[in-house]
Amino acid sequence: MPPRRTQKLTGCIDVVYLPPVRQGKSSLALHPGDRCREHVDTVIRRMDESGIAQVFITPCKMWACDRTLHCDNSELDDVLRFTKPYPKRFVGIGGYNPFSSMATLRRAEEGIRNHGFRGVYCHPSLAGVLCNDRRMYPLFEKSAEWGIPLILDLRPLAHEDPLTSAHAIEQIGNDFPELSCVLAHTDFTAEQMLRLTDQLPNLHFSFDTASLLFPEVRDFIQHEIGQRRSMWGSNGVPWKSALSELLRVGLPGRDAVLKHNAGRIFGLNAQAKRKVHPYSLLFGGETALTAE
Questions:
Q1: Which of 273, 280, 258 is closest to 54 using CA atoms?
Q2: Nearest to residue 15, comparing CAs of 277, 272, 270, 265?
Q3: Could you tell me which residues come within 8 angstroms of residue 132 by beta carbon, excluding any fewer than 6 positions away?
Q4: Burial of 177 (0-12, 13-18, 19+ CB in 10 A)
Q5: Would you call 83 helix, strand, or coil by DSSP?
Q6: What is the model's pTM?
Q7: Euclidean distance between CA atoms 242 and 149, whole angstroms
Q8: Is 111 helix (H, G, I), strand (E, B) or coil?
Q9: pLDDT digit string (tens) for the chain, length 292 residues
Q10: Residues 222 and 245: beta-carbon distance below 8 Å
Q11: Which of 15, 71, 213, 220 has a beta carbon 3.0–4.6 Å from 226's, enabling a disulfide?
């Protein structure tokens, strides 16, 4: 009898590739600074071995980094060192600092306009603000105008930090109905997620492997709308381990969650031509990017 062939996932898209700077003693975590030091070709080999088709790359969280390099202006370089040699394997994502909104929005716009970035990422708690703080509103406005999704990381920094409420997300969605938003690392119940997705047609979720094992999340993705609105991000857990666990436990709507939804929501198969406008128009109330 021939040996049983080991099943393997292929073509997966990692929406939140953020090797943690400090992850305790977990054997699954990458060593601090590995993403900064690891050669891109090495990452490609690990992707091929693990069945990863594409990885979203965000700017480094410089204020939480332990490396000694001075990198205050390296946001684009951190992303471009991945996306330039392998544009079909890595997806560039801009960053946002609510205390430097004009400068970071300009850098994000440069990435979108000149380098094909497909979204913007922000972790409000790292800046010490709530997701519905008014300092976040320039990001919401410009993301909606650009027509690109926003990945909003809702992890609190400490147990004392307030958790994001479903009401806060409803407020953002009602204030910016055209904003396409992907919530990462939420702590909502299945009922709350179902209510939010029913009320906000442009709202989506990204779950890491551990979250996809939670009863609340599994209840959510048992529903057809949950499967259409959910994506997967490794959050720094090695791909082989993360995907093997999902194979072991099973995942409703697996191909949609691991592959197709990210491609659809972020337009990975569409290469829109963009008209270039001066920066003066970007902050003058007009949309800076328009598809031809």
A1: 258
A2: 265
A3: 168, 171, 172
A4: exposed
A5: helix
A6: 0.84
A7: 25
A8: helix
A9: 555 555 789 999 999 987 543 333 333 444 445 566 788 999 999 999 999 999 999 886 554 455 434 344 457 888 999 999 999 999 999 999 999 999 999 999 999 999 999 999 999 998 889 999 999 999 999 999 999 999 999 988 877 778 899 999 999 999 999 999 999 999 999 999 999 999 999 999 999 999 999 999 999 999 999 999 999 999 989 999 999 999 999 999 999 999 999 999 999 987 544 443 443 334 333 334 433 3
A10: no
A11: 220
Q: What are phi and psi of 250, to 5 degrees?
A: 85, 155
Looking at residue 23, its pLDDT comes to 37
CB 220 within 8 A of CB 230: yes
Q: What is the DSSP letter of 99?
A: T
| Count of beta carbons in the 10 Å neighbourhood of residue 230 | 27
**Would you give the DSSP letter of residue 186?**
-
Q: Residue 80: which H helix or E strand, with range?
A: helix 75-83
Q: Hey, how many other C-beta atoms are within 10 angstroms of the C-beta on 2? A: 4
Bin 81: left if φ > 0, else alpha if -120 < ψ < 50, else beta: alpha
Structural element, H or E, at residue 152: strand 150-153
Neighbours of 180 (CB within 10 A): 19
Contact 56, 17 (CB under 8 A): yes
Token couple for 143: 């993301």
**Cα–Cα distance measured from residue 42 to residue 78, given in angstroms and rounded to the nearest whole number:** 16
Phi/psi zone of residue 61: left (φ > 0), alpha (ψ -120 to 50 degrees), beta?
beta
For residue 124 the two structure tokens come to: 């409000």
Query: What token pair was written down for 52?
Result: 């990863």
